Amino acid sequence: MSVDQDRMQTLERENDNQVLLEETAHPQSSKNEQASTNKRSTPFWRVLFKWFLTHSFTPQWLPKPWNHPLVGYIVAVLSQFIAVIVTMLLTQLFPSFTSTGLLEALAVALVALNWGAGPSVIATLAGAALINFIIKVPHFTWSFDATSLVQLLIFFLVGITISIVASQIERARRNAEELALSLEVERSQLNAIIETVPDALSIHDVHGKIVRLNPAGRRNTGPKRINIATDDKQRAFGLRTLTGEPFPTKDIPVVRALQGETVSGVEMRFLNAEGQDIYALMSAAPLFDIQGKVDGVVLITHDISALHQAERERALRASELEAAFESITDGVFLFNRDLQIISLNNAARELLAIKNSSDYLSRSANERMAMLAMRDEQGQLLTDEQWPMSRILKGEVLQGPDAADIIVRTLDGHDLELSVSGAPVRNQEGELIGALCICRDVTERRQLEKRTQAALGALLAMAETLVLPGDSPGSKSGALTTVEVNKIAHRIAELTRSVLGCQRVSITSVEPETNMLHHVAVVGLSPDEERHWLADQQQETRLGDGPDPTIATELRANEVLLLDMTQPPFDTQPNPYHIHTLLMAPMTVGEQLVGLLSLDFGGQEHDYSTDEIALAKAVAKLAALAIERDRLLRERADARASELALREANRRMDEFLGMTSHELKTPLTSIKGNTQLTVRQIKNSVSAFQRMQEMLESTERQV
Question: pTM to 2 decimals?
Answer without folding.
Answer: 0.36
